[in-house]
Amino acid sequence: MDRTRKLIAEAFEDIADGIETGSFKKRLRIGLTIYGSEHGVEEMIKAAQLAKNKYGDFDVVLIGPDVNCGFETVEVQDAEEGHKKMIDLLDKRKIDGCVTQHFDFPIGVSTVGMLVAPGSGKNMVLSTTTGTMSTNRVEGMVKNSIAGIAAAKSVGIDNPSVGILNVDGARGTLRALKELQSKGYKINFAQSLRKNGEVLMRGNDLLSGTPDVMVCDSLTGNILIKIFSAYTTGGDYETLGYGYGPGIGENYDKLVNIVSRASGAPLICEALKYCAVCAENDVLKVAKSEFQRARNAGLEEILNRERPSESGEIKIPPKEVVTYAIPGIDILELDSACRALWKDGIYSESGMGCTGPVILVNSEKGSQAVEVLKKAGYK
């Protein structure tokens, strides 16, 4: 009864605010799954309370045990059920976005994080931090660039500067992006603070936050976001920045922001705000528009040069629900591992979780799929 009264009171407050300002803008509802943290359910509730006290311009909906803590709660029994309920709530538009941990995105979707550069205190978008846009390194980093631009625009940077971290594939990525730029896709390249002033960024640029968007592969980004989130605490408690960010893909339609199981309440509080800003400015719609502009400028033709040609046709088995994750496959072998399963009549998809690449198959065929992959030399 107390919770019902509280919700009614908040609704009347929103109406009063709307009358006063002349605007009846919808109040955003951001979900937070509270099972799965290494710091316990209490830490997640603390994060929700921090966000409410610090911002107060969106509502947090908890997904987890009913702990009677003053927040609307959707009750589930464990983390796995929490993810299923999260997707259901997003599909039914009962929440506008959700912050969660350890979620497996399909290939083609990767998360765009945001950190605080220690040398300047500047926010810098890190694209990307989990998931993967493609199993081809250069293709993935080119698409990461587009996703990073979309995320930056969604947090209010109209013409974000883009730098490419000098890792494997960086020069191929730069070559592809410059061609895309020459054909009409707008990219504002950053210049390194080092004397050579290249677009390719160094470690110094990470520390200073030189570009608005720092592009890298997701495995490197995952390491970086962990370091920048927890370098003041010894690593087991992440406090700084905004988390691993929203999963962005060309046609992905669910706003899911990732934090780590090591993330603490201060960081999760900011991740909730990041998610709310992304929801308010419809980051997924912005991303779709950015990818379309890139395609109009010849993205597919440019990327085709980076893709290895496949010889021989393998018939893909009928599509099935795939919920069984098989880890331990190298990211560069995901496509060929899927093909090995298709050849054996097992439908599979490649994916990327927070701990690395996975092959997804139907739960009833999990053991069979593992054996096929072992025989093929993948396990």
UniProtKB/TrEMBL annotation:
It comes from the Bacteria. Pfam families: FA_synthesis. Its EC number is 1.21.4.-. The lineage of its organism: Bacteria, Bacillati, Bacillota, Clostridia, Eubacteriales. The keyword Transferase does not apply. The keyword Glycosyltransferase does not apply. It is an enzyme of class 1 (oxidoreductase). This is Glycine/sarcosine/betaine reductase complex component C subunit alpha. It comes from Clostridium lapidicellarium. GO terms for molecular function: oxidoreductase activity. Keywords: Oxidoreductase. InterPro entries: FA_synthesis (IPR003664), Gly_reductase_pC_asu (IPR012116).
